[in-house]
Amino acid sequence: MTGYFQDAAVLARKDLLLELRSRDTVPAMLLFVVGTLVVFRFALPESAGDDAARGLLWIAILFTALLGLGRVYAAEREHGGLDGLLLAPSDRSVIWLAKTASVVVFLLLMEVIAVPAFALFYAPVDAAMIGAILLADIGIAAVGTLFSAIALASRTRELLLPLLFLPLAIPVIIGGVGASIADDPGRFLWFLGLYDAIFAIISWASFEYVVTE
After folding, report:
1. Cα end-to-end distance, the chain, whole Å
2. b/e 194-213 (16+ beta carbons within 10 angstroms → b)
3. I want to staple 200 with a disulfide (CB 3.0 to 4.6 A). Which of 53, 67, 142, 207 is the partner?
4. Which pTM does this prediction carry?
């Protein structure tokens, strides 16, 4: 089991180093989410309250995450590295775990800028909202990494990925918005945690079948 997590750490480190060198994914995500928040700042009516603004933040996070998920396997697709990973003498679910971890890091880097920008433009951010964002990142990364692998083999992957991912991301939006605006956010945080646990297990267990097919 130690070797399993070591292999995942090596692959995740590879993805992070590639991103540091190429700067393809995170800057695009940052520009998208900040641009979206700026547009919403001028488009949102003055009569709209803080709750509406928090809902818009979750929409911005979701679609920014989708932009990043489209690049999860970009290096392997462009250089044919996925076949080499599949032939490596380790469990193929290691690839899913490493990719999920790297996506979580990309989302956190984006949110380090996006959340303070939201607090500056719209409304303060409390601890429950931060917790909801962290839990949502895990769920988005776990499910999105699996569906990115499914879409990889399709010629219409740019269309297929949103069609697969967005329906299953609706519970994340419900939990995130609920935790952000409810007087008792605890039940929504539990909901997000349960979502993460269930779909992480499903994604982990089915990844080998997906990449084999």
Report:
1. 26
2. ebbeebbeebbeebbebbee
3. 142
4. 0.91
